[in-house]
Design goal:
elongated; about 60% helix
Length: about 160
């Protein structure tokens, strides 16, 4: 999976999972809506290619695919549909790679997912020789956070 897709799935996706979390759990700081609104600088409820290029290069790379109705803009619904489709594909790839069905990938199983395999030791936070979807998500979010923090000041979303 390329870097832009990881950005979309793991940086914009958290807001989509909030609805499934128990009511007693504290809400995450960066919800899907918060991230979308940061990119939507003119506050019209849609992302233009210009907004995406300036504030979300990963979205800009896949803009034409996300723009399901081909109106030159990406709505929240279009983006959420795209993210959900990508999430389902990622889950299916993980399950196919998980040959023994234990919900974890050994280093051998991770060979089927080159992006995971290449970073296996970094992703395996508890050093048990296996990576879980949670560890992958945490690693990807940390990497996205690093990338956002390393952008020049002029390129940060408003």
């Amino acid at each position: 999976m390329n870097r832009s897709i990881w950005f979309v799935i793991l940086v914009l996706l958290p807001g989509m999972t909030l609805a499934a979390e128990p009511a007693g759990k504290p809400q995450r700081k960066n919800t899907f809506d918060d991230n979308f609104n940061r990119v939507d600088t003119n506050r019209d409820g849609k992302l233009s290619m210009t907004e995406a290029e300036k504030n979300a290069p990963g979205v800009a790379l896949r803009f034409a695919v996300m723009d399901a109705n081909h109106d030159g803009q990406v709505s929240k619904k279009e983006l959420m549909n795209f993210v959900e489709a990508q999430r389902k594909q990622a889950v299916a790839r993980f399950k196919r790679a998980d040959k023994n069905g234990n919900g974890k990938l050994s280093k051998q199983e991770a060979r089927a997912l080159p992006g995971i395999y290449a970073r296996f030791d970094k992703i395996d936070a508890n050093r048990d020789g296996q990576v879980t979807p949670r560890e992958i998500g945490r690693y990807a979010r940390a990497q996205a956070k690093k990338q956002r923090g390393s952008r020049p000041a002029g390129n940060k979303p408003e």
